[in-house]
Every structure is written in structure tokens, then in C-alpha cells.
Amino acid sequence: MSRAMREISTSGYKGASTEFGASKWRIVNGPFVTVWIHNVPWASKDVMAAPQAKFSDGCLDLVIVKDCPKTVLLSLLLSIRDGSHVNSPFVTYLKVKALKLEPGQRVGDPTMGGIIDMDGEVIARGDDGINHDPNWMDYGTPFLMEVDEGLATLFCTN
After folding, report:
1. Do residues 106 and 63 share a domain?
2. Which CATH number is 75's domain given?
3. In what order do the strands lie in the sheet with 115-118?
4. Residue 105 shares a structural domain with residue 87
5. Best label site of 16, 26, 62, 95, fewest CB within 10 Å?
6. What is the pLDDT of residues 74-96, one digit of tens each?
7. Angle, alpha carbons 15-92-22 (nearest 5°)
């Protein structure tokens, strides 16, 4: 191997660390209404989903809405405008460096696997023995997400 090739192979990006042996893990069991993962406070101009999120703090903000009565859910949806929904006992708010998402079975039909969507678009489903859209992926194993601090630098002017 040439010297130039050795330098490229030793200095390039190696990917996120996946060594979690010494990490402190928390387990939060469902059922959940929704699980949001953010790194900025605002999901849209009038939805402050993760009020404590900061783009450059090296964390993901995990917002979990637990199963709750419909009246409570309506109240949470109305209070999401200013971020006060995170004060509800039905909301768990965590700052995390990594998370593992293991969707369970669907509530109301435990024979069917859970669904994962992004912005309302189904991207993955659990195994339910039914052929679906080929663009969906099966999540036979849990999703592991990790912050890779310092991977990108943004320069902006106004």
C-alpha cells in the first residue's frame, strides 16, 4: 500500500463510537403515544417540541408522551406551542448521547408489529407476516442512534 493510501485510511472518518459498556442506560417502557427525537427546540414555527434542545450541546433530546386519556392528550397538544407540555406527568424528557429504540407490538392488536414513522411517513414496521410497501424497512433488531459530536461545523452569516 502506498504512503498516500495509508494516510487516507488512517485519517478518514471512522464512524460513531459504539462502545457503550461504561454508559449509564435507562429503560423506559410503553405504551407511548409518541416518541420524538430532536436536537433543536422547534419542530415548526408554532411547535416547541423540545424546549431544552440546543443544536451544539452534544445531546439528543428525547421526548416521550406516555399513553394518556384523550383529554390530557388534547391539553398536551395545545401546550406544545410554548413547550410547557414537558411539565406534564405524562411526558418524559431526557437529554441523551445515545438511544436504542425497540418498538413493541401494536396496542389493540398484539399480533402486529409496531410502526415507526418520520414526519408522518411510515419508514419501518415490525414483522406482522403481511407484505407491505417495499420502501418500508423491517426493524428486526432495535434502532441504535448516537450523537457523533463535532462531526460537522457550520459557518453562517446574516
Report:
1. no
2. 2.60.200.40
3. 115-118, 121-125, 137-138
4. no
5. 26
6. 999 999 999 999 999 999 999 99
7. 40
